[in-house]
């Protein structure tokens, strides 16, 4: 067993800050890396040491593997934690870290490589008798797709997906035959641009499908447990925007089945560290299908931590050090409902990125609220990276209470000025009667778009100024008051 005394965090913003908080608890020293536009970032201030890694574009900084490993060795680190995004699911990087004599805080490189290929992952699931969505795994031409649809009796819509994909990139939904040629080209070129690989496959599109994922945790001695499931159905542009645990879509029998199916799959591939198995649930047939494995820490791990009381990042470090899991499946009893929303620096009306300086920032507080922030008041939001600036989580004894706490957090507690954020949209979603009833699918935002927009409460700094002016006018008109 090797002790981790100092770790380099190969990330920025929210994930870097999240990992540093656990490191502080575990008395692990942290080294941050930063690009030129990030030199005054929150994660840089929070770390024990910081290393300048390159210019703004990720290729020159956060994706520069050689530079990152060199920095870790020069600063005397024992380990590298990749967070999520950037190099978190890059098997070459994981191998390079270990070849340099450092500990990789994550699953084995060969497992990352295996699961990074969505087609191979599907084949393994089929071998392990885990249901997968009807798919055509070898696609060259439009004719291939049409022939498959005819043979398997599959109707439109269908989904074209990048084999090396993730994060909603390289995914195109096709609703009619005429759109096929263009959609296939689009998916291929998106895949090439995002992943350097234009291999795609085609799947039947499940109408009204819901995204349910199971959090898994396994040590290096073959012990694997699940930390129950999360519902990640509410998405924009195939990217999650709101998650909750437990899922309101399934009952306890399905919950047991889906969680143990996830364990079975992870055993099959020899998984260790923390990871997530994603499923698509069809509420009409009550069937669930294997989608993919995320071989990293998930953005939404915090709601599982709120529901179970465990520190998932802490477990990653323990497993990387070679420790055994200190609990068994029976010990894990979630007793909270938790919801997370992603506050992105985007215009909530059209999701266009919003850059600039945060001129005012108030962070929600009070019972049942947890905030994972990557910014501070006065911080710059640069245009080069993911637009996530903060995760706001709420917890309650049941779903209604968690929704009420989130309402307080977003409507009363959160103020961000200087840039636009997705907060008004998120508040509209949690106040929407269909969301409160638990009636939603991955197309919820598209289907209720106009209605959600109409629920926005536009509050500007001018409103505050008018309020103060009215107050002053009242005092001057009425003269001194008894309470003054």
UniProtKB/TrEMBL annotation:
<dbReference type="InterPro" id="IPR005481">
    <property type="entry name" value="BC-like_N"/>
</dbReference>
<dbReference type="GO" id="GO:0046872">
    <property type="term" value="F:metal ion binding"/>
</dbReference>
<dbReference type="InterPro" id="IPR011054">
    <property type="entry name" value="Rudment_hybrid_motif"/>
</dbReference>
<dbReference type="Pfam" id="PF02785">
    <property type="entry name" value="Biotin_carb_C"/>
</dbReference>
<keyword id="KW-0436">Ligase</keyword>
<dbReference type="Pfam" id="PF02786">
    <property type="entry name" value="CPSase_L_D2"/>
</dbReference>
<dbReference type="InterPro" id="IPR016185">
    <property type="entry name" value="PreATP-grasp_dom_sf"/>
</dbReference>
<dbReference type="InterPro" id="IPR050856">
    <property type="entry name" value="Biotin_carboxylase_complex"/>
</dbReference>
<feature type="domain" description="Biotin carboxylation">
    <location>
        <begin position="3"/>
        <end position="450"/>
    </location>
</feature>
<dbReference type="InterPro" id="IPR011764">
    <property type="entry name" value="Biotin_carboxylation_dom"/>
</dbReference>
<protein>
    <submittedName>
        <fullName>Pyruvate carboxylase</fullName>
        <ecNumber>6.4.1.1</ecNumber>
    </submittedName>
</protein>
<dbReference type="Pfam" id="PF00289">
    <property type="entry name" value="Biotin_carb_N"/>
</dbReference>
<keyword id="KW-0092">Biotin</keyword>
<dbReference type="GO" id="GO:0005524">
    <property type="term" value="F:ATP binding"/>
</dbReference>
<feature type="domain" description="ATP-grasp">
    <location>
        <begin position="122"/>
        <end position="321"/>
    </location>
</feature>
<dbReference type="InterPro" id="IPR005479">
    <property type="entry name" value="CPAse_ATP-bd"/>
</dbReference>
<keyword id="KW-0670">Pyruvate</keyword>
<dbReference type="GO" id="GO:0004736">
    <property type="term" value="F:pyruvate carboxylase activity"/>
</dbReference>
<keyword id="KW-0067">ATP-binding</keyword>
<dbReference type="InterPro" id="IPR011761">
    <property type="entry name" value="ATP-grasp"/>
</dbReference>
<dbReference type="InterPro" id="IPR005482">
    <property type="entry name" value="Biotin_COase_C"/>
</dbReference>
<keyword id="KW-0547">Nucleotide-binding</keyword>
């Amino acid at each position: 067993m090797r002790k981790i005394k100092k770790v380099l965090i190969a990330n920025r913003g929210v994930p870097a800050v999240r990992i540093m908080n656990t490191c502080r608890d575990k008395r692990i020293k942290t080294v941050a890396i930063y690009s030129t536009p990030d030199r005054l970032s929150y994660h840089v201030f929070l770390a024990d040491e910081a290393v300048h890694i390159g210019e703004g574009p990720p290729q020159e900084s956060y994706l520069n593997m050689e530079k990152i490993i060199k920095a870790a060795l020069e600063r005397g680190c024992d380990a590298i934690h990749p967070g999520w995004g950037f190099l978190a699911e890059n098997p070459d990087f994981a191998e390079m870290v270990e070849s340099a004599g450092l500990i990789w805080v994550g699953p084995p490189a060969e497992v990352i490589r295996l699961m990074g290929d969505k087609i191979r992952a599907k084949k393994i699931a089929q071998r392990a008798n885990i249901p997968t969505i009807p798919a055509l795994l070898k696609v060259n031409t439009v004719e291939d797709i049409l022939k498959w649809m005819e043979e398997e009796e599959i109707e439109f819509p269908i989904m074209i997906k990048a084999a090396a994909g993730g994060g909603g990139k390289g995914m195109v939904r096709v609703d009619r035959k005429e759109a096929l040629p263009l959609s296939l080209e689009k998916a291929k070129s998106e895949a090439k641009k995002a992943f350097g690989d234009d291999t795609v496959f085609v799947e039947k599109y499940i109408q009204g499908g819901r995204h349910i994922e199971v959090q898994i945790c396994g040590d290096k001695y073959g012990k694997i447990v699940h930390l129950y499931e999360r519902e990640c159905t509410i998405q924009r542009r195939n990217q999650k925007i709101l998650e909750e645990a437990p899922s309101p879509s399934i009952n306890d029998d399905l919950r047991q089945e889906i969680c143990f199916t996830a364990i079975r799959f992870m055993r099959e591939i020899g998984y260790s560290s923390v990871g997530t198995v994603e499923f698509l649930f069809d509420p009409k047939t009550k069937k669930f299908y294997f989608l993919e494995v995320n071989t990293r820490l998930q953005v939404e791990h915090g709601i599982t931590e709120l529901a179970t009381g465990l520190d998932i990042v802490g477990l990653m470090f323990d497993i990387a050090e070679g420790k055994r899991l200190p609990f068994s499946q029976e010990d894990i009893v979630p007793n909270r409902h938790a919801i997370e929303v992603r506050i992105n620096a985007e215009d909530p009306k059209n999701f266009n990125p919003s850059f600039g300086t945060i001129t005012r920032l108030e962070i929600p507080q009070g019972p049942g609220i947890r905030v994972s922030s990557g910014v501070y008041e006065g911080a710059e939001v640069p245009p080069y990276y993911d637009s996530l600036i903060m995760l706001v989580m709420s917890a309650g004894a049941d779903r209604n209470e968690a929704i009420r706490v989130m309402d307080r957090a977003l409507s009363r507690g959160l103020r961000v000025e200087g840039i636009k954020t997705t907060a008004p949209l998120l508040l509209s979603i949690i106040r929407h009667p269909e969301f409160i009833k638990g009636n939603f699918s991955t197309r919820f935002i598209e289907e209720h778009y106009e209605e959600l927009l109409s629920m926005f409460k536009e509050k500007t700094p001018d409103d505050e100024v008018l309020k103060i002016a009215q107050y002053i006018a009242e005092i001057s008109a009425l003269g001194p008051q008894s309470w003054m």
